[in-house]
Inverse folding.
């Protein structure tokens, strides 16, 4: 005969001195008292009893069903099986079909009264679990209000140890570099520059920086204000999602703002640098330094209405039969050429190449009309209002796709590790796999945070009226619109237009939606 021994301790119970060793010793003694010397021990460390899909328990039940020599299933207490009454009764039924279920600290009688008391014992365990949760949440809330850290929100650039926050020198230098670069160039260019410099990213020290990571740092006011918040998100139960099926996973929820607790941290940058970076973010022309912008009237103004990325100038040169070199200039979406990184798994934009002259003539014609006649401005405002009602774009489509792919990759890794854990018998290897699962779960939480931020930030294109005062000033400066130079056209267009959204219609035809400067 053989016995299966199952022990479990949750994270909360570990902090209160509960021991797997003591459970195991009592269960082994129980088996020996039954004359059984052969036993298999399954241990579950740091896993709540409210979770059904626990790897060690699932392994134990699987062995119980497959090994006919197993006669006993031994635990120290019913709440080791589960603190959820429904799960407790389910596991009890599954185990009792194949072996006798015994407890070292509880006498389960095979009578009607015994079954009733067993059910009551399970209900009490579930009630105790809820009390533990309430006490922990109350304790954390009181601790936070007293100015103590209940957890560290994992802000890049800082170290946290034993309730003390300090600046991490190397990471702080990177943060300062990001803000200095962000004051001069776009977010994607900052990410590329960091990669070129070989700067390790927050993600496991890799040198590949995502634009979402750069943007999150540039928008984090904590770096300049020295303030952050805890108790902002309710994450109760989310750390156990790795054990739950998809339909039972718990999402974290934003708490009411009055429950947030402000905490002080050392600032890393000064106000002047912050202001410079924010000004660039708000007013960036989205230019790439390597583009030949000097020859394109619309450089830095075009944004794709399909994928949210920018359009830039592109040219080709051909030599005809007479030996004359001819250059043709185009505009193309950045997400089309050069396109997204192959590793991102993101599809190229569906838009095509457009002759630069066609759009430049159209936009200059619009701007020239504003400068010549106020009625053209009125007509533009009418068109603009119609467009506003039907147009919205997602400027973060690529980042959203990258985050979604990363989440899918993490889920696949997690599933593979769980399957491996279910088959692994070596306790040391199982512990290492558990650590890997914890690391993946932590990264999943971070990715979900980024995803939620991206979801919330999806916004409609802003619509503003033509600045008539600017129009009047340019009229005084440009008396001869018919013979305006390229430089005069470029200056007028960029003074009056904040952005141009390229809206794709059927096939490769487009509408240019002009957003004036405020």
């Amino acid at each position: 005969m053989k016995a299966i021994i199952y022990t479990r301790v949750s994270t909360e119970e570990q902090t209160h001195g509960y021991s797997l060793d003591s459970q195991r010793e009592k269960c082994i003694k129980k088996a020996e008292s039954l004359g059984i010397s052969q036993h298999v021990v399954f241990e579950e460390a740091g896993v709540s009893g409210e979770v059904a899909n626990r790897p060690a328990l699932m392994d134990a039940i699987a062995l119980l069903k497959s090994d006919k020599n197993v006669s006993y299933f031994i635990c120290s207490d019913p709440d080791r099986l589960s603190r959820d009454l429904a799960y407790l009764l389910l596991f009890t039924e599954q185990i009792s079909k194949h072996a006798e279920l015994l407890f070292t600290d509880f006498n389960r009688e095979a009578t009607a009264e015994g079954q009733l008391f067993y059910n009551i014992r399970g209900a009490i365990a579930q009630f105790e679990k809820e009390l533990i949760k309430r006490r922990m949440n109350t304790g954390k809330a009181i601790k936070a209000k007293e100015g103590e850290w209940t957890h560290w929100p994992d802000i890049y650039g800082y170290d946290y140890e034993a309730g003390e926050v300090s600046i991490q020198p190397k990471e702080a230098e990177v943060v300062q570099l990001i803000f200095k670069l962000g004051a001069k160039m776009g977010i994607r260019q900052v990410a590329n520059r960091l990669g070129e410099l070989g700067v390790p990213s927050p993600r496991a020290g890799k040198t590949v920086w995502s634009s979402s990571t750069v943007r999150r740092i540039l928008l984090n006011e904590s770096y300049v204000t020295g303030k952050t918040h805890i108790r902002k998100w309710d994450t109760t139960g989310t750390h156990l999602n790795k054990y739950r099926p998809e339909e039972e996973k718990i999402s974290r929820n934003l708490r009411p703002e009055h429950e947030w607790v402000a905490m002080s941290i050392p600032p890393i940058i000064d106000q002047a640098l912050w202001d410079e970076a924010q000004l660039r973010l708000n007013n960036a022309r989205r230019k790439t330094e390597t583009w030949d912008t000097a020859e394109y009237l619309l450089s830095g103004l075009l944004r794709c209405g399909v994928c949210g990325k920018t359009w830039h100038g592109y040219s080709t040169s051909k030599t005809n039969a007479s030996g004359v070199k001819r250059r043709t200039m185009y505009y193309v979406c950045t997400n089309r050429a050069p396109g997204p990184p192959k590793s991102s798994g993101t599809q190229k934009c569906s838009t095509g190449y457009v002759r630069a002259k066609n759009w430049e003539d159209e936009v200059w014609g619009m701007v020239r009309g504003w400068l010549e006649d106020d009625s053209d401005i009125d007509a533009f405002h009418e068109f603009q209002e119609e467009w506003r009602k039907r147009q919205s774009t997602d400027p973060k489509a690529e980042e959203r796709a990258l985050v979604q792919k990363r989440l899918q990759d993490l889920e696949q890794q997690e599933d593979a590790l769980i399957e491996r854990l279910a088959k692994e018998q070596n306790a040391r290897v199982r512990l290492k796999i558990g650590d890997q699962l914890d690391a993946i779960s932590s990264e999943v939480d971070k990715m979900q945070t980024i995803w939620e931020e991206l979801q919330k930030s999806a916004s409609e294109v802003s619509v503003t009226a033509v600045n008539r005062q600017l129009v009047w000033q340019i009229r005084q400066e440009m008396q001869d619109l018919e013979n305006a130079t390229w430089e005069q056209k470029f200056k007028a267009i960029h003074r009056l237009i904040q952005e141009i959204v390229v809206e794709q219609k059927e096939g490769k035809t487009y509408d240019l939606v002009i957003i004036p400067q405020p």
